[in-house]
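We emphasize that the prediction below concerns an isolated chain of 258 residues; any contacts that depend on oligomerization or on bound cofactors are therefore not represented. The input was used exactly as deposited, without trimming of termini.
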Amino acid sequence: MFSAAGFAKTWEYIDLFKQGLVCTISLSFLTVMFGFILALVLAIMRLSNFCPFRALGLTKDGRLREPGLLTVLAKFNPLDFIATAYVEILRSTPVMVQIFVIYYVVLGNVDLPSFKLFGMIRFDRFFPGVVALSMNSGAYLCEIIRAGIQSIDGGQTEAARSLGLNPTQTMRHIILPQAIRNILPPIANEFVVIIKESSVCWTIGVQEIMYAVSSTKGATYRIAEPLVIATLLYFCLCFPTSKIIAYFERRMSRGSKR
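Result of the prediction step, given as a C-alpha cell string:
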C-alpha cells in the first residue's frame, strides 16, 4: 500500500531516479539514431535488385529457361535474403533474449572500457544495451521505411531518371524526403516504444529508471512508491515526445495539402 512515509523514504533516493532518467534518454536517443541507420541499410537491401546469378535463367541463345532450379537461382537476391532473415529473426524473438545474447554471448568475452558516461553510467553495461536495442529497433524500422519508400509513385523514379539523376541521387533527393513524411507517424510510435522497452536493460545492470526502482526497493523494502515515480517519469518522457513529433508531422504535411 502507498503511504506518506513510503514516499518520504523513496524520495531519499531521488538522485537514483535522476540518473536513471538521464540514462534512459541517452539509451533511447542512441538506439533511435543507430537503429534508423541500420533500418535504412536493411530497407535498401530488401528493395535492391541484385541477382548475381541472373544469367543462369537464360539459355545459350538468350531465351528464358523453363521453371526449375536454375530459374530459382537466377532470381535469388542474396541482399534481400540476408535482410529478410535478419528482420524475421529479430522480430520473432523477445527483446530480453536479444539483450542477453548480446551481453552474455556476443560481448561476453570482450573487455569493454569501464569508464562512466556523465560520471554515472557504466559504459560496459550501457554499450551492450544500445547494441541490442538498436538491432531490435532496426528490424522494425526497416519494414516501416520499406513501406514508406514503396508508397512513392514509381513514375517519380522514371521522371528522375529522365532528368539524369542516378539511383543514389533519386533516393536521396526525390524518394526519401517524401517517404519520411509518410513514415513519420509510425517512426514516432517506434520511438515511444523504444523508451519503454529500454526498461528491460536493467536486467544487465544498465542504470536506467527501472534499475533505480530495483535499487530503491532493496534499500527501503518499498516497491509501490518507486513504481509510481517510475510510471510518472516514463509518462513525462513518452507523452510529450509523441506530441512534439505530431506537431512536426503536421508541419511537414502542410506542403502536400491542396
